[in-house]
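Dear colleagues,

As part of the handover before I leave the project, I'm documenting each prediction I ran so the next person doesn't have to rerun anything. This entry is a single chain, and its sequence is reproduced below.
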Amino acid sequence: MTTEEQKAFKAKEYAEAVRYMDNAKDDLSKTKKDGGGRYTDKKYVRRACGTAYSGILVALDAWLTLKGVDVSKRSKKQRKSIDFYTSNLTLLDKKLLSHLLSAYEILHLFGYYDGTTNVKVISTGFDEAYKIIDKIKPAEAHR
């Protein structure tokens, strides 16, 4: 990929990852917070966490592609797993790996699967997601 192609690729993939995050924030806005620091509707929290995690995967696929890693699926039986991302990030960027592991645990496991409604926990997951997405942020892009 030429430098110009890389810039265009980053801009496109960054915009897509941010779109996922915007959709996730929109889902969170559909539920209220109670006085105890929890969201009141688990359905919207789960959906928001799943969408945010998908945005992370968009960003990671783009980042890995720019690093020369083949991110294409081999077949439906060989979907990429968290192991695919962790094994590649272990070799390429341990700080990014740390953000991924936190985001995976918070957004994918606690938020999406377990349905946690703790506002601070979900907020931390979103912060971790943005740290990952910002790795492909073009110089001229604004969030």
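Helices lie at 3-29, 42-66, 82-92, 94-113, 119-133. The chain has one domain: 3-70+79-136.

All the best with the project,
I.
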